[in-house]
Amino acid sequence: MKLLIATGNAHKVREISEILLRDIGPGVEVLSLHDVGFEGEIVEDGTTFEENALIKARAGAATGHICMADDSGLSVDALGGAPGVYSARYAGEPADYERNNDKLLSELRGLPPEKRGARFVSAVALVFPGRQAEFTVRGECPGRILKERHGKGGFGYDPLFFYEPLSKTFAELSPEEKNRVSHRARSMEAFVTLLKQKMKEYGYTLC
Ligand code: IMP
Of all protein residues, whose CA lies closest to atom 11 belonging to ligand 1? Predict the structure, then answer.
């Protein structure tokens, strides 16, 4: 079967293709929005990660292909879940990781470690165009926001996100370590299970 990935991010298309190849085998042919000639603009104005993932997956599925899309971000307990779906542009336009991290530090200034709980969240949506069938799965990774940056790896909020089980920030983990425990690793694991189940249920065969 063919699966369209509704993201303009070539890095994500490659990462997801590798996971599908590893966990399902070569029988799922991955297509990008570019491959199917999609040129529309997708407005991500949902209020949850799931809504935004569905908005993207529905837009992709409108081309007639089975489509998946993901949406992710950071949710901080003391900020009522913010920055949430606004994670990329928390400190305003243009999106900037350093300014976002500075803003997060200033919002949490003075809070002790036990009140700095947070989680990375990743939602993945799957839409089957001919069947009016839509599904979402979610992966979360709990952690704590430090008072200063540690580590040089990763991206986004990684230098501030302390992952207790490994006693390191995400920016101090190797890509392999992060990919084993991250919110995206967890949502993709759930997604692979969902995709296998729906392929069986709907009678799709591998290419
Ligand atoms: P996207 O929707 O997956 O592109 O992610 C939106 C924003 O969430 C990114 O711009 C980052 O600020 C943040 N984010 C998502 N995943 C991660 C991660 O693994 N590490 C650090 N920041 C992340």
Answer: 156
